[in-house]
Specification:
There is one protein chain. By secondary structure, the protein is of the alpha+beta class. The protein has one domain (5-130): Alpha-D-Glucose-1,6-Bisphosphate, Chain A, domain 4 (2-Layer Sandwich). 31% of the residues lie in helices and 36% in strands. The chain has a seven-stranded antiparallel sheet with strand order 1-7-6-5-4-3-2, covered by helices on one side. Helix 1 (15-23) crosses helix 2 (25-32) and helix 2 packs across helix 3 (106-130).
Length: 134
C-alpha cells in the first residue's frame, strides 16, 4: 500500500520568490527559524530544520523542485520519501502543488499533512506578508 500526499495552495509571492524561499539557506533560516538548504542543482544537498530532514535534490528548475526527504526520527533503515514542488504563476502570487510520496506508514503521512502547513507554508507565507512588505 502506498502512502502518498498531495496538497495545493496559494502563496502571495511570485514563483521566483517562492523558489528562493525554498532553496536559499539565508531565506530558509529567516522564514523557518532553523537552518536549511536545497542546492538548486541535480544531486545537490537538501537539509531542513537544523538537519532533522536530509536528502538530495533530484531536479531543480525555475518552477519545479524535487527532493528526497528522510526525517531523522523515521525507523532505522527507512527509505527516503520524495517531495515534488510545482510552482505556477497565479493572479499576483503562486499556485503551489506538492506531491509527497513514499511515506513509510499512514501515521507519518497524516503527520506530514498538517506539518507542511504548520512548519513550512504558513511560516513562509507569514514571512512574505510581513518581512517582504517592510
Amino acid at each position: 500500500m502506498a502512502f502518498d500526499l498531495e496538497l495545493e495552495l496559494f502563496l502571495s509571492g511570485k514563483p521566483v520568490r517562492v523558489m528562493q524561499l525554498l532553496t536559499d539557506p539565508v531565506l530558509i533560516r529567516k522564514w523557518s527559524g532553523e537552518d536549511g538548504i536545497a542546492e538548486a542543482k541535480e544531486g545537490g544537498k537538501f537539509e531542513m530544520f537544523d538537519g532533522w530532514v536530509t536528502g538530495k535534490v533530484l531536479k531543480a528548475t525555475d518552477n519545479e523542485l524535487v527532493v528526497t526527504w528522510l526525517p531523522a526520527d523515521w525507523e532505522e533503515g527507512a527509505a527516503p520519501s520524495q517531495v515534488s514542488f510545482w510552482l505556477k504563476p497565479y493572479a499576483s502570487g503562486t499556485q503551489l502543488k506538492l506531491r509527497h510520496t513514499g511515506f513509510p506508514n499512514e501515521k507519518e503521512r497524516d503527520s506530514h499533512k498538517s506539518g507542511w502547513s504548520d512548519f513550512y507554508f504558513d511560516p513562509m507565507e507569514d514571512f512574505m506578508l510581513i518581512m517582504d512588505k517592510s
